[in-house]
Amino acid sequence: MINVHGDGESYGKPQPRSASRTGRTVLSTITTNDHPTILAARREMQSWRRLALEPSALRAPDGFADPRSLGADGRHLAATLFRIAQEAGTSHESSDSEAVYAQVAGHLADLGDVGVESLSVVPDQVREVLTLVLHERSGMRLPARALSEGTLRFLALCVLLEDPTVSGLICMEEPENGIHPANLPAMLDLVRELAVDPQEAPDQANPFRQVIVNTHAPGVVQLCDRSDILVAVSRQQTAPDGTLTRAL
Fold first, then answer.
1. Where does 49-221 sit in CATH, by number?
2. Where are the alpha helices (DSSP H) in 109-248?
C-alpha cells in the first residue's frame, strides 16, 4: 500500500493506493496542484531526456518539415544541427552559423580515425531534404549515411553539446557502442563536457545538465573517476515473509 500525504504541515488523512493493483506509478496519476511537491517531481521526471542512439536513425536525412530536435534514437540529427547553426547566425552574415559547424567538426576531429576538414548541413530546395555532410581532409565528401556507427554516435553528442535548448538530466545507453577502444577517452571527455561544471555558476556557456551513463564496458569504467561510478549488483535477500528473493 502506498500512502500519498499532503504537503508541508498538512495533517490530513493520507490517500492510500494499492501497489499491487495499480497499472502505472502513483507519481504519473498526480495532475493537479493538490500535491504540489509530487506534481513538481512529476514534471521534473517528464523533462528527463533518454538517449539510445541507433545508426539507422542517425543516418536518415530530414525533411524541411521534420522536428528540429534530436530524438531519443538520434533521429533528426541533420535538422537539429541545421537549426542550431541557423539560430546562431544573423540575417546579414553567416559567421556565427559557420562557427557552429566548425565547433562540431573540431570535436569530431578528436576521433583519431576520422580526418575531418569541415562539416555542414546541405538543404536541397527541390527535394526539401536536409543532409548532413562531412568533408574529409582527403577531399572526400561523405553524407551521414556513409559514416560509421561510432562516428555517428560521437557526432550526435557533439551536436547536443552545441544545443542551448538541452538542459536537465540526460540518460545515455552505452555511448561507447561502435566507438574504437582508442577513442574511448575522447568519448568520455565529451560526455563530461556535456555535464555542468559544478565549480562554476550555470549560464549559457555552462548549461545546467547532469549526465547519467550506463555501461557494461570495463574500458569505460577504468577511465572514470571512482567517485563518478555507481555499481548495481543483484543479491539474494530474505523477504519479510521468510522467502528468498533477489533484489538490487
1. 3.40.50.300
2. 149-162, 184-194, 218-222
Q: How many CA atoms lie within 13 A of 182 on its CB side?
A: 5
Instruction: State how far the Cα of 147 lies from the Cα of 55, in Å rounded to an integer.
Output: 9
Burial class (CB in 10 A: 0-12, 13-18, 19+), 109: middle
Distance, in Å, from the CA atom of 61 to the CA atom of 186, rounded to the nearest integer, reads 26
Phi, psi angles (nearest 5°) of residue 209:
-130, 140
Q: 95 in helix, strand or coil? A: helix
Is residue 12 very low, low, confident or very high in pLDDT (cuts 50, 70, 90)?
A: low
Neighbours of 86 (CB within 10 A): 15
pLDDT tens per residue, range 148-171: 999 999 999 999 999 988 989 999
**Single pTM value for the model:** 0.81
Neighbours of 152 (CB within 10 A): 22
Measured CA to CA, the distance from residue 126 to residue 132 in angstroms comes to 16
> CA–CA separation, 216 vs 48, rounded Å?
22
